[in-house]
Write a structure and sequence with these properties.
The protein has 133 residues and is of the alpha/beta class. 59% of the residues lie in helices and 12% in strands.
């Protein structure tokens, strides 16, 4: 089985002051002890690196790169997927849901991923099975 990991979960793991830090740590530990595979997109990586750099600096980015990133398989958003998701975003007219989220929805659906590790309510609104602790 596969689990899609979102920026909110990664950030909660790294930021000890995040309201979801403790929950994220428990969920992450359970995933590592299971045979489930963590999957994300290059857009999530980009978003995460931006937030880590902005909030904590390059040492945090380097820690993420060395300690967490090797545990995650990355699916690369190509031009076709990007354009499809951009069109979906414009068509949906939901201003608060980002292009990164639409690309995440695409990957979850296209790869039949059955669980999502996130603290972003947009995934619940879409009806995905969120990991809870």
């Amino acid at each position: 089985m596969s689990i899609f990991i979102d920026t909110s979960a990664i950030f909660a793991l790294v930021d000890s002051d995040d309201e979801f830090n403790e929950r994220a740590g428990k969920i992450f530990k359970n995933i590592l002890e299971s045979d489930e595979k963590l999957i994300t997109s290059n857009y999530i990586i980009l978003e995460t690196v931006f937030l880590l750099q902005k909030s904590f600096g390059l040492l945090a980015v380097n820690d993420f790169k060395k300690k967490i990133l090797p545990l995650i398989s990355i699916i690369w958003i190509n031009e076709k997927i990007h354009n499809n998701c951009l069109n979906n975003m414009i068509f949906a007219q939901k201003r608060k849901i980002s292009l990164t989220d639409y690309c995440s929805f695409y990957i979850i659906d296209d790869y039949n991923i059955d669980k999502v590790f996130t603290f972003d309510s947009h995934f619940k609104e879409k009806g995905y099975n969120l990991l809870e602790q």
